[in-house]
Amino acid sequence: AVCGHGCKYGECMGPNKCKCFPGFTGKTCNQDLNECGLKPRPCEHRCMNTHGSYKCYCLNGYMLMPDGTCASSRTCAVVNCQYGCEEVKGEVQCLCPSGGLQLGPNRRTCIDIDECSAGKAVCSYNRRCINTFGSYYCKCQLGYELKYVSGRYDCVDINECVTNTHRCNLHAECLNTEGSFKCKCKQGYRGSGFDCV
């Protein structure tokens, strides 16, 4: 089977037919499926969509059970956790619904971990890290765009001279470079390439 546009988070099952991995949707399986919007709802109380998955958490006064349901808990109500709690060896601890969140100084509310500045993010050399609340994602570096080339998705250099997105002077020629471009004044003109006289 050949899928001309590729299957980003899935596998090719027939001519241009993708079977998406759980948590993904779309013709090329390139979109995250928002499980929180599904019927029946996957979580009893609150749901947080994550890339390719989701996390359940409970309202204050409830404890998250292993099956994703919320059980009433007087101990949780006393602790006043933002996202529910769990009991570990008789001790009540507040929970955060994502590994990209951590308990704040008050040990009750969750604050975001900036994986990008903390160096915890794993992005390939030609991608940059974008922090989100509770997580992060990798985006092509400036001057590159995501394209499906020879069987996989990759960040490919944008030729600003062809796409006409350069800012070269009318009397300059555009020279494409990896991730950027240069401007050179034409013969008989001089200047930076952005200004030619």
Automatic annotation (TrEMBL):
Q: Which residues form the EGF-like domain?
A: 32-71, 112-150, 157-195
On whether Protein biosynthesis is a keyword of this UniProt record, the answer is: no
Where is this protein found?
Secreted, Extracellular space, Extracellular matrix
- Give UniProt keywords alphabetically: Calcium, Cell adhesion, Developmental protein, Differentiation, Disulfide bond, EGF-like domain, Extracellular matrix, Repeat, Secreted, Signal
- Using the record for this protein, list the coiled-coil segments as residue ranges, or answer none: none
Q: Does the keyword Secreted apply?
A: yes
Q: What is its main location?
A: secreted
GO MF entry, a single one: calcium ion binding
> A Pfam family in this protein?
EGF_CA
Q: What is this protein called?
A: EGFL6 protein
Source species, please? Answer: Haliaeetus albicilla
